[in-house]
Amino acid sequence: MKNILALLLLSPMLALAQNPNGSVTFDQVSDGNWVALPGYSYNITVQAWGGGGGGGSSTRNAGGGGGGAYASRTYTNVMPGTYTVSLGLGGVVGGDGGATSFSGTGITTLSAAGGSAGLGCSNPSDCAGGARGLASSSSGSITRDGGNGGSGKHNGGGGGGGGSATAGVVGGNGADGGPASGGNGGTGQGAGGAGGHEDATPNAVAGTAPGGGGGGRGTNTGTSQAGAIGWVIVTVNSALPIELGTFNAKPAGNIAELSWTTATESNNSHFAIERGTDARTFSEIGQVRGAGTTQEPQSYTFTDEKPLSGTNYYRLRQVDYDGTESFSPVLSVVFGKSDRISIAPSPATDRVRILLEEAPGRDAYWKVYDSMGREIRSGVWEVESAEYELDVNELPEGMYTFRLEVGASVQVKQFRKL
Prior knowledge:
The chain is mostly beta strands. The protein has no helices and 24 strands. A hairpin with a 2-residue loop joins strand 23 and strand 24.
């Protein structure tokens, strides 16, 4: 539930502003894994292509490698965390393409099979192309076969590599080598490489990512080529923000009652209730256990049995199971003596007037903090004045804290901007 409290306000059901929608393509081994950002529940579609097979290893003609298979699956209610992306490598010359997979806690593994290597011939004969990556060897809600590699022609050109499949169509087969020319590569999401001509003019071509099979060499000279690496594409169809509820604090006789709500939670270990006397420095006074991961609204309460005399400032520190923390805005409750500072009007639209019981009589400095404790305004208070007018017209809607420092004395008051 990382950062779900970051925008808690007194108004109900406010959602996080961050937008994680979009697609991420993993096309290099170094790209790492897919991370579902905190604060959201995701609906995603993942597509995977297996690696293409390499062209056959041979001192004569060789078949093209098979194209990688395709698999896809749509996942709903994917929670924040790290999901493993394993890309199937393209086969080297004479090597099979690897399988590609996407996996993680709470989801069904997606996998796409790689294509097989083409065959190489040391004797005068035609050499078969590599078998396609099979849908039946893959796992997904949609699976498609890659294309077969083309055969290398005896005393002729090499076979073309098979193309990798697409979401709707199987990969195209590589063409067989001709009496002199190499076979064309098969079409697909990743095209198969063309086979080499009999005299290697031109030579065989490597497969194109994702998952194209490599072309086989021609009879007299040249080299077969490698298949292409597989891919994974993660598309975020929607990222449902973890909806936030309310946070309230009020006096009830000689105690302070705190209450708050959440609409959904993810990996929420507990809430630490913190109290301070200046809205800047806090100490923990209790904990309330969280609901873990839930899509159901939750309500919480906490009672401060021994509030301090004067103004008590409260905030929530929300802690995930992995120790990640986030904080709520600060609320205040007054006990005993009355405030020496007042602000009106609150809520305000354009200006607020800050009133003191008496002029400070010495250098005084003021600061304004937003609900996250960030300083956004500062200034100097006139020594002989007990009143100050502050322009808040351009401030965003929300809760703010006004802090006045007069020597070692600190006075704090909150106001709300509409």
